[in-house]
Amino acid sequence: MEGEEFVPPPECPVFEPSWEEFQDPLGYIAKIRPIAEKSGICKIRPPQDWQPPFSVELDSFHFTPRIQRLNELEAETRVKLNYLDRIARFWEIQGSSLKIPHIERRILDLFSLSKIVTDEGGFEMVCKERRWARVAQRLGYPPGKNIGSLLRSHYERIVYPFEMFQSGASLPHCKPKHYDGEDVDKEYKPHSIPLRQSVQPSKMSSYGRRANRCQPDPEPTEEDIEKNPELKKLQIYGAGPKMMGLGLVARDKGIRKKEEPEAENGKENHGEDDTDGPCTKMTMRLRRNLNNPQCVDSFVCRMCGRGDDDEKLLLCDGCDDNYHTYCLLPPLADPPKGNWRCPKCVAECKKPSEAFGFEQATREYTLQSFGEMADAFKADYFNMPVHMVPTELVEREFWRLVSSIEEDVTVEYGADIHSKEFGSGFPMNNGKKTLTKEEEEYARCGWNLNVMPVLEQSLLCHINGDISGMKVPWLYVGMVFSAFCWHIEDHWSYSINYLHWGEPKTWYGVPSVAAERLEEVMKKLTPELFEYQPDLLHQLVTIMNPNILMAHGVPVVRTNQCAGEFVITFPRAYHSGFNQGYNFAEAVNFCTADWLPAGRSCIEHYRRLRRYCVFSHEELTCKMAASPEKLDLNLAAATHREMFIIVQEERKLRKGLMERGITEAEREAFELLPDDERQCDKCKTTCFLSALACSNCPESLVCLYHTQDLCNCPTEKLYLRYRYTLDELLAMLHRLKVRSESFDSWANRVKEALEQEEGNKIAIDDLEMLKNEAAEKKFPDNELLRKLNTVLKDIEHCQRTSTELLSNSETSETKMTFAELKSMVETMQNLPCVMNQLKEVQSVLQIVEDFQSQAQELVNDRDWRKDSPPPEKLQTLLEEGAKLPVVVPECNLLQGLKEQGHWLAEVRRTLATEGGERQEVTLDVLRNLMEAGCNVPQSVSVETAMAELQELLTIAERWEEKAQICLEQRQKHPLSTLEAIVNEAQLIPVTLPNILALQGCLTRARAWVTDLEEIQNGEHYPCLDDLEGLVAIGRDLPVFMEELRQLELQVASAHSWRDKASKTFLKKKNICLIVLCPCAKRREQREEAEPMDDPLDDSDTNTLGLSAQDLRDPAAIVMAFKEGEHQEKEALLRLQKVNMCKENGRWDSVCVCSGQPRAPQLRCHLCKDWFHGGCVPFPSLLPSSGPPINPLCWWDWDSRFLCQRCQRSRRPRLETILALLVALQRLPVRLPEGEALQCLTERAITWQGRAKEALEAPELQQALQRLQELKDTLHHEVEKEEDMEKDAEGSSVIVLSDSEGGEGEDGVIDLTEETSPLLPLLKGQVVELSSATRVHLEELQLEGDLLEVSLDQTHTIHRVLQAASVPPREMLHTLIQVRQINVELFFRFKSVNLHKHTEWM
């Protein structure tokens, strides 16, 4: 299986007993045996609360583990290694070291190669028929790579000489080829196994492979073991029999050992190798000369006996014997190179391998030191923490290692540690330690492995001696990969293993029915191992991959035993496994009654294998048979069956002795003899009932199965040694029979008592006596006993129930039913004993039956299926039934009839079928009646009423559903349709909520139509607010109305016009009406110097001082607008007067920010208030569009500043406003904004007419002409000096424009930073105006600035007034200064952004 992935076998059964089942360990195991026995092993998880404390004394616990080389455990791998040992030794004798070749990156399996070539007919046949490709295929190599020729070459060079040597034939050619050339070494891997095998490991070095096989040690005597406690400990731990004294040599007996001079020589060589390593011929000669001066005389040829011709004398590197080259057969022409072995040493290669066993470690561990070593080994091996290594990975790696020839992994296993010497992991009541209350409970628990073997149901409690591992638990301290090999328990007994703590233990099990199949498979696959060790599987030293066994038809199961879990193995169930890591386990054997046949079969098996027994099966059986009264019934019956077979076999064997003429006999107390003194010399069976001895051969003894193998003495010298006579055995068998048959007598009496009929019934006390007898004699649980207990329980129940019945103490809730009463009477009549209360209970039953008859008569007199019975009789019978001590079914029937009558009356009242008008009911009333009708007894009347209710409910729900659909407005219906639905639904005598809601909607729809007609028929167009209200109401109604769509279009058009007007006027989100109306109230508030958060925040009603109702009257709006104009002008004049007083720092706050005065600041042209340059936008001086102007024409500069309080809107041109008015005329809706816009337009047109009239005056015409001439003159002067101005360069540039472009753009005029040369050049009072004209123009300018409309006349009047005044140099200087600051900030911001962009790039 090397190289193949390991496939885990199926899991074994896992059982989790309850606390009740857990109280009887052996009983629970017997319960699960039919299931678990089919798998061979099973796992038991105790209840979670069962956690025994770990009781090992850690300070005094010291142990010496065993050494396990993993690849030597596996059977097939060990065969391969043994083969490599022999072939390596062969080539070592030939003077060459074995080097194993590699093919396809894996080592060549020489054993498999040899076996396959042999199966194919041998080397000559494979070569002749060219089967090497087939050989390569069978070895698992891929085809088509000429591997067959490589295999032939390697076989011919390495294996073929060895095979020829093994068969005794000679090679067809000359001597074998040696592997000392450099070219050969490149493709061969040195084989290190012979070095480890031939060198005895020292205590300081690592453990050699199979070191115990190199130098066999003599068996220790009892004296040696008693003197050396370590040997005594090892004898306990060693594999094999578990009884003390087995396998030892007695003091007076010598050690039988064959003379093995080769072994002695080997021992000497090993000692030398340990000291100085491999020896050459010269060094060996020198050592002999130094150590033994007389050895010169031994330099003689072993063949001819002469010591002459020293140059031709060869020294054997194995045994130091000398041979002439020409004395050898065949003779050697030249001395061989390297090491050389003589023919005697060569013969050693043909010797069979010695028995394999585990080595004992040289170091003693404590639990702590062993755990540290184990954890470090596992962590280093897997390169991860020990608790993180998956169990599946460890399992695959274990089976890979045991199948590997190349990898030698060595682990240590503290196995078979005697708990009596080192202490058990479970608490024990042995007097050595004071136990706590909890520990005492676990010390007495049957699952304690010290207690289980000696439980009353266990057979091992009848064995007096402590059998280590069977009656006394063994302890196991494991590490990763430490394994226990395939084996079955001694005497095929049960075993139980408990894992106290640590990492899991992986188990594999085979059921007993497949035990022989497993043995056959292992013998078939590895016959070399069983040839010299027939009892190999009893030595616990051989493992085989479960996948191999399963492939050959052996059923295998597995499990991972975790800490706190038990694993049970069943009789003759082979099991093996390994440890996942550092853990501590404890195991012991136990035997139950069902084991006895398996135990007898095991003794017969041992007899065939000539294997020692741990105890005598016959002795155990006879000891139990001697005291049958101490056995429980099952054990007594099983012992009787076993004893019967033993007695029959003993009688037959003794009869055979009588027929041979052996008549002498003497009684022998075999149980008093040591086991080694009563073992059969032939089969090693421990004798107990009888044995054959010879008076001439006192030390010889055989069982009666091997009487022919005792000795050759005459028959009269032979005599029988027996423990019991046949009569005594028959008497013991009879007592067992009486004990086992005592149950039959009791069973017959129980059967007779339970089958008593009327007139012969027994007393209750007699049944109690039978029950007590079963308890006293410990009869097992059986069907008769269960039946007897059931009868006694029935008697007790009947007595208790009848007493309660007759005392009439039961309430209505606890009363028994009529069926229970009748069943109790039948039970009392059928009981096998006399029941005193039977007659009284029968009389109660009769009274109940009479009541039932009366009730049936009442029901049958009138057909209550058509109508209900009279309520008076019903009530009388119900009162009588309530007094009965039993619940009678007829009472429920009568009660149901009563409820039926009440229900029908309620239906009649609801539907008014008994006369009078029908009353309207709700849907819930109908549903409740329907639900109640289902719970009353059914009759014709009930069915009729239910049908009528159902019909009415169906119709009502259908109309409700229709109304619900209409109300949901998924599809609106016309008014006429909904009226028809409501009218039809009103005919149903049920109150329908949805119909009522729909009726309310219809009422509101009619009122909506009426309101619409009134609005449309009014004197004026309807207001937008009225239409919006009607639209909102109409949309909420579930009625389809054609007028609603027209209204929605009108409202949408009005909103569209309002939005357009808002976009035209408003600079930000605001109310358009506020901007269009005069701001008289705002002027009043500004006069009070109270700053407001939002200067444009006013409602419609505050705008003109009109209420919402007044806004609907156009005349009122016009009158209020005219009055507002007058008030706005007066308020502004008052505000100007107040603001003009803010001079020379005599005011507290200015600007929209209400801050302190600070430069630069500018005064509003209209309200005369001061504003900061950073708070409000100042004018740009030069126009941003239109033709360029001359800077000296300062009257054309855009220097007129209006604050945001005075310029409230965008001030569109008059043409734009007129377009809005035209669109307004098309709307059939009145808007307050429309009225205000008309008033504003009329005001603007009126002002425009006055302004035109004033500007057409001669004085103003002359002034305008003067300004144009002056402008032209300055333009010509600028053209003359253009060239000079191009050369002038300023240090900085101020862009007096709103555009963001740089110098040189069209429409942009640059002024130098030095404003002082420019401002003095500005000429003042370019034109002259009369005082009247100036006052008139200033008044017009004031009124024009109040208009929220842009007019050309406003700009013209401003130019004329500017030209007629002195240049406002201070104001102009402020504007230029503010502009310069803004430009600097702009370029600074631009340079910062450019720098950031460069960094990003």
Automatic annotation (TrEMBL):
Cellular component terms (Gene Ontology): chromatin; nucleoplasm
Biased composition regions of type Polar residues, renumbered to the chain: 195-205
Q: What biological process terms from GO does the record include?
A: regulation of DNA-templated transcription
Q: Which InterPro entries match?
A: ARID_dom (IPR001606), ARID_dom_sf (IPR036431), JmjC_dom (IPR003347), JmjN (IPR003349), KDM5_C-hel (IPR048615), Lys_sp_deMease-like_dom (IPR013637), Zinc_finger_PHD-type_CS (IPR019786), Znf_C5HC2 (IPR004198)
Which EC numbers characterise this protein's activity in its record?
1.14.11.67
Q: Which cofactor does it need?
A: Fe(2+)
Q: Where is this region: Disordered?
A: 181-230, 256-279
The compartments listed are: Nucleus
Q: Domain named PHD-type: which ranges?
A: 298-348
Outline the extent of the JmjC domain: 441-607
Highest taxon of the lineage: Eukaryota
> Which PANTHER family would you find in this protein's record?
LYSINE-SPECIFIC DEMETHYLASE, LYSINE-SPECIFIC DEMETHYLASE 5C
**What is the official name of this protein in its record?**
[histone H3]-trimethyl-L-lysine(4) demethylase
Question: What organism is this sequence from?
Answer: Amphiprion ocellaris (Clown anemonefish)
Which taxonomic lineage is given here? Answer: Eukaryota, Metazoa, Chordata, Craniata, Vertebrata
Gene behind the chain? KDM5C
